[in-house]
Amino acid sequence: TSKKIKNSAHIFANEMQEGFLKNITMEQELRKAIKNNELFMVYQPQVDTQGNVFGVEALVRWNSTAFGKLVPPDQFIPLAEATGLMPKLGRLIFETACYDIAALEQELKRSLQISLNVSVRQFMDPLFLEDLLNILDKTDLHTLNITLEVTENLFIEELHYIVPLLEKIKSLGIQISMDDFGTGYSSLSMLRQLPIDELKIDKSFVYTIDKDETSAKMVQNIITIGKNLNMHILAEGVETQEQKELLTAFGCDRFQGYYFSKPLNKEALLAFLKSSAFY
Ligand code: C2E
Ligand code: CA
Ligand code: CA
Ligand code: CA
């Protein structure tokens, strides 16, 4: 047995080393990717109860030449967070999204709400707000048309720094959305302390509402709480008409998901908005 343990320890060490090496390579490649413009943004339409597109969520994509494929953001955003690359990557994401949408607004002569995902390290960067306001100024976008999607992870950090900053951000007209709502552990107490405009129900709940009564009841109660607190409720990951109808009956007022549209690059988004009867 001692030989077996030794062997498995050896395999484990090898696997750890492989994971470690893989991360180093990915980190180096990500640094290069930022320089070489391998990152781009896609935009997923967000619709109201009438089916009108009122906004888009900006989602980053990395088309890596080194790996020969699209690397999912679930993989490289955490890596950027861990390696100190995030404030820079976050700034690039905000800038690209704001330029893209400002150009589209000019072309379509209408405005859109732009939802931007904010990671913890990006938000905690001392230049976060200043950078964002500079980007809005350069692109002539209004603070009222910006929504920041924050997650519960943020609130593990120092609340005495975060709460006043969020309040300042909100006082400038920027909207705050609570992303992945219900998946963390401190959701309810956060709602009391924070200036939140929108609750975003995670797709893991939406996926099961028409299959499982417990999740249906949970979603129903989340919606009731949010509405009593005067928040918008946006359901993400809506894939079927049944889900949309159930969510509407529960009082959800905003929707996003493949049922309406997949995330689109800026050209495809322009075509989508031009061709939809209402936008
Ligand atoms: P998230 O913020 O919860 O984003 C929602 C994810 O659900 C996106 O995956 C979106 O493409 C996907 N999705 C939308 N509708 C549907 C649907 O109907 N069905 C299914 N199955 N999926 C749907 P994506 O783009 O792969 O992003 C994954 C996560 O990576 C995001 O989760 C977010 O946490 C992070 N992320 C993506 N872009 C950015 C970014 O620009 N900045 C930051 N900080 N994080 C980002
Ligand atoms: Ca999000
Ligand atoms: Ca300006
Ligand atoms: Ca989510």
TrEMBL record:
Residue ranges annotated for the EAL domain, each copy included: 23-277
Domain of life: Bacteria
Coiled coil start-end: none
Protein name as it appears in the record: Diguanylate cyclase
Span covered, complete protein: 483 to 761 of 762
